[in-house]
């Protein structure tokens, strides 16, 4: 009965005055409790040590997985869970915010790809372990590595030679690749990769023209979602023969009148209803979204053209690097904010700031000695480099950075 009640009333069960006697009579008491009841007991504030010990021995994977996520576990318990037979538990350990380096290395060599994938996303991953995961046997692990904002340039180039479409599609969304690699991905035989290249923050204008004529509707749908797609193109896409493309156009809030009219004539009733009820977002709504607890929402918010400099400044101080990087890509970000982002601790944010056309010259100069090859690569691709800065980058130790100077910017 107590085991059943624990799921809904964990604090009351722990306060039951008869519980100590029950534990004496049944040393493995919690082993007979349902998993959801033990998890609830674990999640109570300051759960007793005996509950934690019992959870460590519980036969249900869900209990040990919940235990592995607790921030206050001592090192011995964490080490024990890192060797658990259940991959879900080892994966939960791999996602812990603080994890000793020996355990990071141990889990990076785990037999289960989900565990290795969790390790691949850790911000404290040693460089040699990262380079091992770049060549991992499982594509999902390599794709997870390809999402890292701070991925070294040599690792990016290694992944560009990958034969897995998911890995290449993940890579294709990045803009911190050498220009020739991006161009190669944009011409891939796989439509998923071609579509992914259109999800990058910036692409050359000729890619947009080519995408409109692509035979695959997913590529045209990706084009319809881009914030810089020309109005005339949107008008034609709104009347596209593929429903997926028309729905992609529907997602936009900046459509020209001709495109809205085409969608109002769409064969799908729900598309027409949506057009009939659509309206712009007010400042109050934007402010509410600014306080959203989901970093993904704030990231999308950061690239809205109507956000305004004050809200962009707020997002530039966001604790999540993805949000700050979005601010660095936003076309309306002020030079002062860009200068601050150029000294961000995350290399991915600095790479984005290095590409922004409004980045002040002093901030450009400060980035020429950046320890990250990708930042210097982004800087070398700028068309407005001063002669002195161009000369300094011409002597960069990385050949990709030097080669980037030799190609006129197409963006």
Automatic annotation (TrEMBL):
<dbReference type="Pfam" id="PF01816">
    <property type="entry name" value="LRV"/>
</dbReference>
<feature type="region of interest" description="Disordered">
    <location>
        <begin position="349"/>
        <end position="370"/>
    </location>
</feature>
<dbReference type="InterPro" id="IPR016024">
    <property type="entry name" value="ARM-type_fold"/>
</dbReference>
<dbReference type="InterPro" id="IPR011989">
    <property type="entry name" value="ARM-like"/>
</dbReference>
<feature type="region of interest" description="Disordered">
    <location>
        <begin position="390"/>
        <end position="411"/>
    </location>
</feature>
<dbReference type="InterPro" id="IPR004830">
    <property type="entry name" value="LRR_variant"/>
</dbReference>
<protein>
    <recommendedName>
        <fullName>Leucine rich repeat variant</fullName>
    </recommendedName>
</protein>
